[in-house]
Amino acid sequence: MSGSRVLRVFVTDGCPDCRHALALVRRLRWMRPQIRVEVVDMARPDADVPDGVVAAPGFVRGGRVLARGEAGLLALLAELDAAGERRPDTTGMGR
């Protein structure tokens, strides 16, 4: 899977907004199972943190910072949907 199809979420221990971000990741994985999500601990010496992520949490996809800080689920879903990551229609009714 290419890096542009991976949502990378940058977090640190003890960060209150990061706890919210991890809860958001759990919901996102359920709502958009086709999106690969990687959680990255920014404190690790080997963490590859993009220049645009200066604080935690940060949401990055394809090198583009989608959100910083306490991201809203609906706003993040809108960004991902705009990139063609809608949940597949299994109802046969279309979207």
SSE topology:
Blueprint: E1 6-11, H1 16-31, E2 36-41, E3 58-61, E4 64-68, H2 73-82
Parallel strand pairs: 1-2
Antiparallel strand pairs: 1-3, 3-4
Characterize this entry briefly.
It is built from two helices and four strands. The protein is an alpha+beta fold and 95 residues long.
What fraction strand?
Answer: 15-25%
SSE arrangement, N to C:
EHEEEH
Averaged pLDDT, please?
Answer: 81
Please give the alpha-carbon distance between the first and last residues. 26 Å
Could you tell me the radius of gyration in angstroms?
14 Å
Shape: globular
User: What's the number of extended β-strand segments?
Assistant: 4
Bin the helical content.
25-40%
